[in-house]
Every structure is written in structure tokens, then in C-alpha cells.
């Protein structure tokens, strides 16, 4: 391995960007190129070393020392030996784990271009116009709450009876770590404090009436005073969410197109058990 020290030192003198760019290009080109059947020669050239250095820089934000580079090269050789011997023995065949990993690599290849694409404002606006409710900011609430205690069937029955009779004020309460009145509280914050079910129930709770609502703490009496509906979302407000959804759809479309193209070259026979 010491023959590589001079070349390694030369590589290490290059700027960090050299490793990141060259290494990434090298491994992008080599990752999908398996050795020829029965090949017994393992070549660790400057391009492979650049790729090893690139991976180290990405992981540790610094180039490897000469000793570390020697170990990286030794580990690369070990990987190649085990990989080739495993292929020679057919260990890759009929292995669901291997199949899934190779499938994921194929999907990554299919969606790589779509993943890197940038949508136009017109495309994002069309996506927003198609389903504005999906991107609408959740409402905010002003409410009063009283904590009754652990949520049990008996307590629910007592609360329901008191609400029906209009005597909810007589129900005993227990100490609670959150305010009795919350003003202009965001649905997300309420979900964080009380739980998702509590926050979701507020979306349909009647305004100005006491109701019993369970939370992560127990059972509450809640009187919703206001439900503040926010204006329709603008592209600038939800751009990142729109971009994420647009890119996900583009990747799925690319994957489906690749699969359709690949399936065209196969004769698929499905024999169902009788």
C-alpha cells in the first residue's frame, strides 16, 4: 500500500472541492460497474483513491491522513474480494435483501433527474390552485378549558350528564399545567400540548358551547370562543411544501415510466395456485 503514499499526498494537496467533485463523479461512474465474471485483478488507481478520499471528506470534513488512507485502501480491497467471491458463489441469487437494495438503486437512477429538477412558478401555482385546501394554513383558536381529570367512562358519563343539564360549572376540576384560557393558539401548538385528537376535534367543535374533549392528559371541558380562519395561502408562503410535492410527483412519474419501459422487454407469466 505504501506505493500510494506519494499519489495520496499529491491528492491531499488539492483543494477540498477537488475531492468532492472528482470523487463524486468517480463513484457515480464506478458504482454500477461490476467486475467481469471470474476477474481476479483488483486495480486501485488514482480515480478510486480520489473516491475514497471524497467519502472520508464528506464524513469527517477533512482529508484522511496517510495512515487513514492506507486503511481506506485496504478496506476497499477487502470489500472487492468479498464482493467478487460472493458473486462467484452465487450468494446474490434468490436473496430478498439484495433484490430490494438493487431495486432501490434502480429507482434512484430513474428518479435522479426529477429529483434535481427545479419547478417553475407557474407549475407550483398550478399545483396550489388544484388543491388549495392541502396547503392552507390551519386555523387558530381562542378557547377556555377546564381539566376534569383522568379520562374514564365514569367521568365521561358525569360530564355528559352535566353538559346536558347545563350544570357543568359544578363539576370538580383538578390542577393543570397549562392556562385555562388560550388566545389565538395555533392548531399545531395545541396538538403539541394536548394531542392530535384534541386539536382535530376543535375543527368541528361548536362555538360558544361547552363540550367534553379528551386529551393526552385526560378529560377537559372546553368552550371554543373563536375559530380564526386564515386567508388562502400564497405561493410564497408555501413554496417549500409545493416544491416537495411537485418533486415527489415527478420522481414517481419517472419511476413509473422506467418500469413501463423495462417491463416491455419481459414476458411476465403469472401462474396462480388453483
Note down, in words, how this protein is organized.
The protein folds into 3 domains: 4-93, no CATH class; 96-135 and 233-274, no CATH class; 138-228, Chitinase A, domain 3 (Roll), CATH 3.10.50.40. Strands 2-1-4-3 form a 4-stranded antiparallel sheet. Helix 6 (121-130) crosses helix 11 (239-263). The two termini are 61 Å apart. Helices cover 55% and strands 11% of the residues. The chain has helices at 4-12, 16-30, 46-60, 66-88, 96-116, 121-130, 132-135, 153-165, 187-194, 196-202, 239-263, and strands spanning 140-149, 181-186, 210-214, 219-228. The chain has 11 helices and 4 strands; from the N terminus they run H-H-H-H-H-H-H-E-H-E-H-H-E-E-H. The model is unreliable at 11-32 (pLDDT under 50). With 274 residues, the protein is of the alpha+beta class.
Work out the helicity level. 40-55%
Mean pLDDT: 87
Which CATH first-tier class of the largest domain would you pick?
A: Alpha Beta
- Spatial strand order of the main sheet: 2-1-4-3
Number of strands: 4
Distance between the terminal alpha carbons, to the nearest Å?
Answer: 61 Å
- The CATH architecture of the largest domain is Roll
Shape designation: elongated
| CATH topology tier name of the largest domain | Chitinase A, domain 3
